[in-house]
Design brief:
Length: about 230
Amino acid sequence: MNRIGIIGAMEEEVNQLKERMQVREAVQIASMEFVLGSLEGKEVVVVRCGIGKVNAAICTQVLADQYQVDCIINTGVAGALYQKLNIGDIVVSTDALQHDMDATGFGYPMGVIPRMETSIFEADRGLLEAARKTCEEVNPDIQVFAGRIVSGDQFISDKETKERLIRQFQGYCTEMEGAAIAQAAWLNQIPFLIIRAISDKADNSAEMDYGEFEAKAIEHTVKLVGALVLRL
Ligand code: ADE
């Protein structure tokens, strides 16, 4: 890997990575700060994209066009869908889709993007296996699962929506950027992986849990991303 792009939605998700970097330059593009330098001796570009799918897709396109990254890692927190997940556990993406893509009025199933070859974007297998193994080594106290990540421009905080996402999409966790990054990466033929730590259970307790557990969850992703980059 010559250059790795690392995207987090929020400052909290990327700050600790930036602190561990030797920074060469920081450039503002599309109101986002792209920080180029080395992390664990590897060339990386770390960027906070902001919340939601539009921010995430724009950020990914800049990484493709301006930085020619060889792969993209999206790191952050998510709400749990898969029942065995505990707060603090990690999900690495097998694939990702947009749960709020709705062309059902045209007869398409929920989540299907009309006139695209696929709506389910597969993560890079090599990155996935490397992340899973690395996570077991550096975060031995938590569980790591490989599974589908479903994204939408919605913070999921009710039991009914959570159950629908499980039923319709068999998602392991839900967040607000991953599938947009996955789609933009796929369009540019860039391998990607989404790594998310569970901050809440995407149910009626989500808002409270999120505030309490976000920082702890991020600790696990920061540890994992640092050690993974070293391996790539
Ligand atoms: N990110 C963290 N928790 C989330 C949730 N419950 N819904 C959407 N995005 C999230």
